[in-house]
Write a structure and sequence with these properties.
Layout lengths: L1 H20 L5 E6 L6 E6 L20 E4 L9 E7 L5 E8 L5 E5 L4 E3 L1
Parallel strand pairs: 1-6
Antiparallel strand pairs: 1-3, 2-4, 4-5, 6-7
């Protein structure tokens, strides 16, 4: 009986640790830009490369939201966001602290609100 309890306790600790670490920088992205978003890129604020598209749906119509899940593999605090429409036109926003922000709303005027 003690062996089972110990194994269960170890499993619970490992699960809690992985849940606490995974997704610390995940957030909800709300599109209020007035255009349909076809790609979302996120990069550390000091990076020169936009990495790969992290949009988990085909497109994000204006007025809709999506959970952005990504595993950057680091504890970088500040991130930049780039979105593109169907023609490749892009808008960029800078310096979001994704360790503290859980929701970002991109607005028509090129500004953003976050919480």
């Amino acid at each position: 009986m003690k062996r089972t309890s110990f194994a269960t306790a170890v499993l619970l600790v490992l699960l809690a640790a992985s849940c606490a670490f995974a997704g610390a920088q995940d957030f909800v992205l709300v599109n209020k830009t007035g255009v349909e978003i076809f790609a979302v890129y996120i990069a550390p604020a000091d990076s020169e490369d936009w990495e790969e598209d992290v949009l988990d749906v085909d497109t994000l119509p204006s007025g809709n939201s999506v959970k952005i899940n990504f595993a950057p593999g680091s504890d970088v605090e500040y991130w930049d966001i780039r979105v593109e429409d169907s023609d490749g036109n892009a808008l960029e926003w800078y310096d979001f602290n994704l360790l503290r922000i859980s929701r970002i709303t991109l607005l028509k005027n090129g500004e953003a609100r976050y919480e």
